[in-house]
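Shall we go through a protein fold together, starting from nothing but its sequence? Please make up or recall a protein chain and show it to me in full. Go ahead whenever you are ready, and we will take it from there.
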Amino acid sequence: MKTAGWYTRRVAGQVDRSKYAVRNCWEQWTREGTHARKTGSGATRKTTRREDRRIVRQALVDPTVTRPTIRAEVGVAIVPQTISRHLAEANLKSKRPFRALP
């Protein structure tokens, strides 16, 4: 669309993206000849897939287990937020007891 002479705003409306996203994509295309994301972006994972499965298994075996306990049993030096994120990825969320009406 840009090579056909369309304005960035018109292209953005057509593809349902912001004009800034279209502009950045077009600039990358003209600079590098590609629109793909760079490989290796983002933080590296601190745990392996096997360790991820062990974290989830610990939570399934004992739903009352705490994050420091899981970290000690798995034997990986990670922060508690990482454990919570792995459990959320496995669709395991904390449950609050239902508060009954008086």
In short: The chain has five helices and no strands. The radius of gyration is 23 Å. The helical segments are 8-15, 19-32, 49-61, 67-74, 80-89. Residues 56 and 87 are 6 Å apart (CA to CA).
